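Q: What would this chain look like folded?
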Amino acid sequence: MEEVQQKNPEEIENDKKGLVKWVKEHKDQLALAGVSVAAVIAVILGLKNKDSITNVWLTLKDEIKKGKPLSAKWYEKADLEELKDVRDSVQKAYLNPKLSMETRGHLWDLLPVIDNAIGKREWAGKEYGFPVKSENGWHLSSD
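A: My prediction, written as structure tokens:
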């Protein structure tokens, strides 16, 4: 068997100092090499997962434009059908007896907010007005 040559402590210390000196002299090249390797890896992964990255980018772009679901910006930007779909799903979740009372309480608090947003969409540009038929209230004159 080969015996490993052992260096005395002075030689080890000199080697360490030499290595540190070399690293300090070449730190710019080492940094450039590290950044280059990271960039090459990112490009390779990007090319392999191009479709996934594109989907994530489009989803993120849409979320930024429209707002996070159930946020104030989302209520302003969502169309009427989307609001009604969300309201139906929240109501179905509220009626689920397997959910905790705390969760159902949060859903109950969310329903009027969604209803208010739906009402604003449905009545946009229309006058609210009062009922015009006498059967809708005693204070109206008969027809």
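The mean pLDDT is 81.
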